[in-house]
Amino acid sequence: IILNPADDYIRDFVKDINRARVIRVDSLMGPPADVAGPEISGSTRLDAATRLMQEQKVSQVKVIDDTGKQVGTISLDQIVSSMVEKVELSGNTDTGGRSRDAA
To answer: Which of 4, 49, 95, 100 is least buried, going by the fewest C-beta atoms within 10 A?
Structure first.
């Protein structure tokens, strides 16, 4: 519901939710890969995963299940992308919202 709101009403309802405190790693993780560094549970919230990566100075970690088996990986890029609200842009604009052609 937070990552993919069904309609504008729900999108408006969830827009102010702190995604890092709600979204779990297992909802964003990629496929298993051989990465060095710490392992985290799939039920870990994004804020805790980010904190661990910063402390360990890594940009990607293994995601494990309850038995310790690797089930995926999660990267800082994936986490950051999930924090940014997806906005559809129409036209060619810069960060100021002006048309690049008019600049």
So the answer is: 95
